User: Fold this.
Amino acid sequence: MSQAIIEWVSGPVVRARPEGAFVMREAVRVGEQGLLGEVIRIKESEIVIQVYEDTTGLRPGIQIEGSGQPLSVRLGPGILGGTFDGLLRPIADISVDGPWVKPGAIEHVAADFYFMPQVAEGDALTPGAIIGRVKPARGREQRILVPPGTSGVVEELVAEGEYRDDVPLCQLRNEDDKRHPVTMSHQWPVRRPRPVSARLPSDEPMLTGQRVIDCLFPVARGGKAAIPGGFGTGKTVLLETLAKWCNADVIVYVGCGERGNELAGLLEEFAELEDPRTGRLLLERTVLIANTSNMPVAAREASIYTGVTVAEYFRDQGYDVALMADSTSRWAEALREVSGRLGELPGEGGYPAYLSSRLADFYERAAKVRTLAGETGSVTLMGAVSPPSGDFSEPVTSHTRRYIRSFWALDTHRAHARFYPAIHPLHSYSTDAGRLARWWHAEGCTHWEELRTRFLTLLDEQARLERMARIIGKDAMPPRQRFILMCAELLNEGFLRQSAFSEIDRSASPARQAVMMRIIGEFIEQAERVVADGVLPEAIAQLPVFRRLMRMSEEIPEGQWEEFSELSDELDKSMVGLVTSNQQTGEA
Amino acid sequence: MFARLTAEGAANRVEGPLLFLRRTLDVGYNEAVEVEGSDGIVRLGRVATVDDDTIVIEVLDDTAGLALAGTRVRFFGEPLKFNVGYGILDRVFNGVGEVIDGGPPIAAEKSMSIDGLPMKPVAREAPKDFLETGVSAIDLMNSLVRGQKLPLFSGGGLPHDQIAMSIAANARLPSAEAQEFAIVFAGIGVPHESAEYFQREMERSGALERSVLFLNLASDSSAQRLLTPRYALTAAEYLAFHEGKHVLVILTDMTNYCEALREVSASRGEVPSRKGYPGYMYSDLATLFERAGRIKGMPGTLTQLPILTMPNDDIGHPIPDLSGYITEGQIVLDRDLHRRGIYPPVKVLPSLSRLMKDGIGEGMTHRDHPALAAQLYAAYARAQQARILASVVGEDGLTEVDRQFLEFGSHFESNIIAHAEPRPVEDSMAVGWEGLKHLPRNELHRLSDAQIEQHLGHHDQPAEE
Assistant:
């Protein structure tokens, strides 16, 4: 392997004099501790290396070893349910070497898994084919794939049984008569998207259990969404809520430059909560990639790619995967820091000029696909963006906008009033909504598209009327406008607001969302009629049923369909009652 | 003492706090050094950059009086360390961990690197357990939880020093654990009179007995300023994770820290980012704030209450902005409330405690505390809207309900937020419920019927039209 000698150290950036050939993006080991790094620039007599660990104590003269390989991670059945650093190295148990992160090599520990073959000797396998299944002690069944790029005829297949994840399960003899061993785990370079046989159009929503998302701004399987918001607007809580309740098979959660306590809380919760669809612990379907803000900066840059590579690995097994990245701004800042130390010409906001293309590289890896093995899988990406002082015109937010399909803008005013999720209905959008309407209609919510449009128009009118109220006062507005404001309040408080911490309401099934949508639709329709008949909106707001509607999200749990229909009946009766008493007063 | 490497006559440039040496020795990045000038003064420093022929030393004291000739640099061969031990409580240190209260040096039990080591996320235990500060705006509305980092965003001329001292004196744990409580207070770049105020006040209230005080004065060198919070946090980590105490660290004023960071970065010739602050300010602040927390299997906790003054009261300024992205919430002080004589002048709407939900509720404060806080927030937000409306169209243009909210807003500020004496959390909750009685029940959407019945039930409802 090639070697190099350090000449200059500044933070995570090291310059060295090469002895032998290095290639761009090659992984290297620095010094006796074996700190992991990556070649990011090559000159005739100098290479520049970005080191992914704390560089305290590094000095000129220290040796660097090349690996000849691009920066890669080891993908295998052991990663589901685990916690890893930005380079997919397990963050070892505290009983092994204490509670502190120490720089230096972390050796991968091989583990045993029970392997059940699905092919026979003599079968010809193509790249990405499934050779068998494993059933880990924790987590779901996984499939063992022939690594992309490898193919041939199966030889020396092992029998069903326990094997270590690094011993060959079979050999593949290819046309050139070379034999390739296939193990449970294989290496894959993080910056290279894994190949697929075709990208498919996504026509099915990824359900999140959050009404404001599923009903107003849905995201498709294989879609991509951004959650921008200033600090305190609830990005992290929203991402965690999505990680808990969205209906993906595997969740990859990348904590990129964020808080340690939050990850600790997430780990604790995931180890207790059950996935309502499978009855298994949420932790068992999750891969957590943790690179908190006090961990080395450069590894933050890699952690996003590591995360999406893991997501693609599970997608290739035919699963629907959702990746949450919190936060892509920290990743962009890591790019900026390294770029600054290299003395590159800064672009907008000090970020390097290639920020936009790097963001595209990441988001373009989201897709619903037909895998090489012929199955259907998807990777859905959701990235939080932390714009400085909540200004959405800054480079990371504005570039991200160019590549995503769902935009969930978090609003400071809503967050201040503790209105969560603080997604602003007028600043957010989803380009997938039109395509996903068909899914809802097929599910029996036949008015989905109509109601969605109705709700959005109502919220838009509310904003307009509130501006007007500031000039003329609410009292001076005609009843019809006061009626709009009342409906918008119900829509916001009773439907869009959803507490992530309420046991009843933290996640809503599509059926419950549909019935709530319908009841609110009914209310708007009926109230509109009685207001036209001369009933004052204030009289409607005083009805006990109005308070019940306002609180239905917190008081009527999943599956209590009779309670919903009772509420609907009560609504009808109250409205009729109002009209009658109104006529009587009119006559008297 | 073991022999240390010494470089003599190697200096070839001095610039601001930086000393440039020809590289005659094998030294590593970030290691500690001692610089002795021809004037005989010993200054602490650390290695900022090394390359093949130059070593750059960041000198932590004034470089006035340093000459190229006759300057000796001793290399420690390891990062800066702080010697800590049992006698650390009730002591006063300067910004670089030297005793300045006239007493003897402390008996060192451990020598800890001041940079600490990052805690593994899996080793952390999620913070829970309530920590009472005696301030309603915090305890009731934005509760502080042990292991949390919750900064106070203030402005020049606002009473943050007073609030800090009041919290230092009155913060308490549930009675059984009271003796396990300790405070580490670091004044970073504070003026002389503030430093004296802190010391005097802590002695007066008796808080000093359970405290460690670090004072870095405004006149001390800015490179030293970068170390003060690190020494303070090292002392806190020792108390929390070696002595098992529940430690509250108060750092004031982090704005001075960030200014020093900018100054040192500029003198190193680094490419500046927003407003001239270095691009790595987020990561740098994170290395401090992330030292808050609790560790599985260890009894102690480390809670941080950093205080920063927002330049020009701008919450979007890089210092509060980046801090807010790292810390678990923020408590914002407001000049308008201060002018109206409301103390503590906490502006609750932009204030937030992210971990509040884990520290309150059944078994900790009260079952209905979360709902109460949520309802107070929603009502006060509505009151603010009514206030904006009233400022344009006048109170007469408001609906009856909006007028009731307007009234609630004033009541909330002067009776719930404002209080002169420290208030136990039970009393804070009682005044909270009392405040909600000003509003029609129909408008209390965040409370269940049962909660309304229990807490507001036996009083008559305000008249409704």
